[in-house]
Amino acid sequence: MLYKFNSKLQARISRSSGFRAPQAFDTDMHIAFSGGGVALTAIDPQLQPEYSTSYSFSADYNVPRQKYIYGFTVAAFYTQIRNTFILEEQPAEPNSTNTILFRTNGSNATVKGITLETRFNFNYKVEAEFGFTFQESQYEQAVTWSAEIPGIKQFLRTPSSYGYFASTFRLTRDLKYSLSGVFTGPMNIAHFAGAPGVDQDELIQSNSFLELNTKLEYALPLHIKQFQMTASGGIQNLLDAFQNDFDSGPYRDSNYIYGPGRPRTLFFSLKIEMNGRSK
After folding, report:
1. Taking a C-beta distance cutoff of 8 angstroms, is the pair 235, 262 a contact?
2. Mind listing the pLDDT tens digit for each residue in 179-213?
3. What is the domain partition of the chain in residue ranges?
4. Are 141 and 109 in contact (CB under 8 A)?
5. Do residues 145 and 220 make contact, with C-beta atoms less than 8 angstroms apart?
6. 36/253 Cα distance (integer angstroms)
7. DSSP H helical segments within 51-123, as ranges?
8. Domain 2-278, CATH 3.30.565.10 — does that match?
9. pLDDT for residue 162 is more than 70
10. Are the C-beta atoms of 159 and 187 separated by less than 8 Å?
């Protein structure tokens, strides 16, 4: 339901629901290697469907002017999940290095939070937007993901804070500079025993990551009307905010990977457009 108070302010409220069937998923088929063995997933014969109900509320405020526009958004969300699908470690067979992860129904869970966003555009010469989310994701009862340490209520691999920003500066008619970033807050990561230096399963809290990306783009002048050529280059993950404790060797934990997907990376591209098509 959407309600417009005036030309600048509007509010929206929504409710949605969904479910997941009691079956194996693609992620279950990704065999994890740890300690020279593998982690295999078994499905509970009594596995029930997982249901979710979500509520959200947002308010948008935008002020348009002849040469600029700015706006703000505040959004709140709340999701309740029933019969949650969880993976719990089961005792392995004697003399076996394999780990059995049992997919079954756990307690209910809630995901709730608030998102703040703002945006600004000045005469198409300066454009900027920013967003940040505070989130809480946890089960009603602790999940024992490892047989060696106590269970926790918090979701694994789910930060409680994250955000982004993007900005573009048009320096001349043909030259444009962009700076953007993604922030990922700390999160709990499972690290299974058998990896180098890991004697028993452990729960790691990752560091925060700020991935900065910069790009310079120049439209090359061509005297052929139906063609347009654009050259660009820049640096992705400028600060090299990258995981620094990867496992190595034949006994590594292959799932112990988190954070930005690439280290500091230089790139260059050339785009040719012809009659609205690009290559």
Report:
1. no
2. 999 999 999 998 887 777 888 888 999 999 999 99
3. 2-278
4. no
5. no
6. 9
7. none
8. no
9. yes
10. yes
